[in-house]
Design goal:
CATH superfamily of the largest domain: Glycoside hydrolase, family 3, N-terminal domain
Order of helices and strands: HHHHEHEEEHEEEHHEHEEHEHEHHEHH
CATH class of the largest domain: Alpha Beta
CATH architecture of the largest domain: Alpha-Beta Barrel
Number of strands: 13
Shape: globular
Length: about 375
Amino acid sequence: MLVLYVKMVLRLSNQVQEAINIKLFLVLLLSILTLSGAELPSDDKLKKMIGHMLLIGFLNKTVDKNSQIIKDINKYEIGGVILFDVFYHNRAENKNIQNPQQVKLLTSQLKKLSNKPLIIRIDQEGGKVARLKAKYGFEVTPSAKFISKLNVDNEEIVIIYKNLAKMLKENGINCNFAPVVDLAVNPENKVIYGLDRSYGSDPQKVAEYAELFMEALEDENILSVLKHFPGHGSSLGDSHKGFVDITNTWTKEELEPYKELIKTNNVKMIMTAHVFNANLDKKYPATLSYNVNTKLLRQEMKYNGVIISDDLQMGAIREHYNLKEIVTLSINSGVDILLFGNQLSNQNIDVLVDIILAQVKNGDIKIQRIIDSNKRISALHVGNK
């Protein structure tokens, strides 16, 4: 069809062609090219492309073909699920994790009942942030801070992380939301510094330890995720609970671990932070910011991998934006995978997909963004089946 359009334009009479300014002619040709590339796939195909961009939490400890999460996975080809050990608002009740036998059964059921390769994700940083805990019968991994204080060779640290990676693999998990590369620059910070999640304040050391972690995971065919871009270590607030402004505390030094690791060409995924920094974007927090995710991370820092949001149900986002705004802004900003952990509230997947579909069809989300994200996500599945 494109060739026919171009031929039609070129067949204009000589008199008309002479009357058309060359600049206007080029604008016309560009419009034709844009029009020809704007045709949308069928709704069913588009819904599956949207489904590939979703990472969803669910309630079950076991699943079967009648479980809602299995129906959603296969209806929309959902890209991944995330496991939690307890409910956020009721930490005495188990959610997806009870013991090793139960987790192995759950992950095997998820993979067997899914019609497509499924990425099963977890937060297993070590220390206080670990969903697979010793009290459930899993092996303990020390925190990032503890590891940074060890007076040992890197080989011994590699052994620690290899053991963690093997544990994840044995339990059917193929993606870990780790390592954290936030800098420990603010002793008042409760969510990074206070939980011993950082390797320290030296960007080079942080990058060095993080790379050891990433390589150990990769050896067991487990995807790693750097977090939380563009840096959460200088913050004072907790983005689970509300708005976090780092305008006056953040420095460019917090980008250095990302820069060092991106140079290795081994960074597959980076998670955004729900932090606001007026120096980077005067209007939007990082997760919803085109300036942060596309201009800074992709264009300036030359990152070509997948960008995944932190949980879009956190207070820092949902208290300030409605669902339509959240999905539209995040996708348009450059985010490829939208995380709805369903810890802070439950999200009907049909509603979520329909909202994104409508935004694509009315042009508020460009189809090219969906295509680009699907290409990046598809590359993740290579070697991870």
